[in-house]
Request: fold
Amino acid sequence: MTRRRLPEWFLLLLPAIIVIAAVVLIPLIFSLYSSFTPYKLTRPSTLWTWVGTYNYEKILTDAKFWTAFGRTVLFLTIALNLEMLLGLGIALMVNKVTWGQRTLRTVVMFPMMFSPILVGFQFKFIFNDNIGLVNNALQSMGFNVALPWLVDGKLAMFSILFAEVWMSTSVFAILILAGLFAIPRDPLEAAKVDGCTPFQSFRHITLPFLMPFIYIAMTIRSLDVARAYDIVQIMTGGGPARRTELLWTLMSRTGYVDARMGLANAMGYVSIILSVVFTIYFFRKLTAARAQIGMEG
Amino acid sequence: MTEVTLSNVVKFYGKHQALHGINLDISDGEFVVLVGPSGCGKSTTLRMIAGLEDISGGEISIGGRVVNDLPPRDRNISMVFQNYALYPHMTVRENLGFSLKIAKKDEAEITKAVDEAAGILGLAELMDRKPAALSGGQRQRVAMGRAIVRHPDVFLFDEPLSNLDAKLRTQMRVEIKKLHQKVGNTIIYVTHDQIEAMTLADRIVLMQDGHIVQVGTPLELFNTPLNTFVATFIGSPPMNLIDGVVSGTSSIKLAGGLSVPVPASARGQVHSGQQVKFGFRADNLMPYGHAVEEEGERADLELTVTLTEPLGTETILFTDIAGTEVQGKMLNPRPVRPGEVLKFRLMLDKCHVFDATSTDAIRG
Ligand SMILES: Nc1ncnc2c1ncn2[C@@H]1O[C@H](COP(=O)(O)OP(=O)(O)O)[C@@H](O)[C@H]1O
Ligand SMILES: [Mg+2]
Reply:
């Protein structure tokens, strides 16, 4: 009689399964569970009190949450579109350059090489109202102002947006540039012969070819939007007085400062919906755009 | 009236000179074929006429207007590309109508023109498909349709059939010829295939290494090639060439000792001791009993067949004369075994003599 043994494929996959379970599955299940408890980091025993959907109900009626939610959606929409347009512009220009293009391509990627924390500190300094570069520059140009870049709500949002766009535009630029390199030359020449001006060629041939690349960039970016947390946290920390509060700062404040982990996790699950919606939306667009130019299947 | 004139057109790619002073006059409604081995500058010439490549020197005019500095859209030409260059994101209908849409024609007019072109090319059932869902031959037809909807002054074709299989190629060749007879526009057609050139052209322009070697009707190039390059490029199988030396004024001693008279056309043009190449086509070397009955000076040769290529109505016979492999032709063929010795007749009136050093034809 032989002992029953685990199938070989399972044994081979086991290390991977264990790692995934440890770093993804268990935290996921734990955080989902804790969002149904009044779990406070300072009172661990609260983890065992089941409160059902109490946290979720609380969030849905919480004006602070919805303000942050709305601001985040607006922020993402503006940031992604701006990054896309700027990235497209940069890619088109780099594509035109014939001399030193490799160097230029590397330069375009520089912002991707910095840690978001560093970028945050950098812009915090640049936009500082006393010693910041921007105000100094304005003053030496003769404007006698000291704009409160990181204090005024609107200006602070602008400053954060600026830093975010500075850091992530290159993702779009690089992906769109890859798209430009992949465009077949023939249809562009056919379009010229068919009577297109350079702008018409761009509008009718180049752009449809680039759309899949643009949507890939959008999908990637909408997946990693949460990274913007670092920049916001460093530059304003969501303040002053919640004027730049985005979902990410709100969550970390609730979880780590107020120590209400259960509630923070519930917020996390609600805002995951946001990420998922953005991602699905762009993924749909991507599939459609690929079908459009005959790349599917 | 849309004549196309190239005068002294030169093209440099960096330091590399691709075209060396091309002169060509193409008259209205003419079907001109640029032919030559790959890399000889055919596409470059065509793309310069289209405006897709700058002109490094010389002048190109279309319909009497110098177009050197005009972008393609102002030249009123259509081009069919080797890889079809269809717009992959548009349906067949959109592909066909694109140029008219760009020209801001109204919907009804576009639909009418597109349907008409689709009718001519048999595309009616494919109108809503994307290029990816078409076969090679269908894509080819869409590319042609896209060219004809605009009613351009000049059609430019760059090896439009080279991606098709042999049967389809023959079929499309006929369609292109019909199209020309129907629309009557000036056509400039590029190919590396001499059969396409022979069958389609009103006039053939044979190019080599960025130069024009000979311009003429298909029969002129076939019957009076200017040099050995033309002689071996045009016609299938290529002209047989055998080295020889002129001896006296009226005979040529071929390598291997065989002696043939100087053909009438070259008499008085050669001098004793001149190194020459003696050329004749397979049609002039036929075995008795399987040859065309014709009058004229002839030489009789007993030759051993080394290889046969039966083509149905005729068989190509490989043999050798004085150590040089040559090809002859057998009409109403019977099976021939390699090694068989046949008695051939060589029609001397139709033979050619080329100078061995310059490779130019010697002709009175
Ligand atoms: N874009 C280019 N850059 C550099 N050389 C080129 C370019 N296009 C063609 N050439 C060169 O010019 C010559 C003629 O090319 P082409 O006109 O394409 O030949 P064909 O169409 O007769 O085969 C070739 O030697 C080719 O290598
Ligand atoms: Mg070519």
User: Anything to note?
Assistant: Residues 166-183 of chain B form the longest helix (18 residues). The pocket of adenosine-5'-diphosphate (ligand 1) is lined by residues B 13, 16, 18, 36, 38-44 (CB under 6 Å).
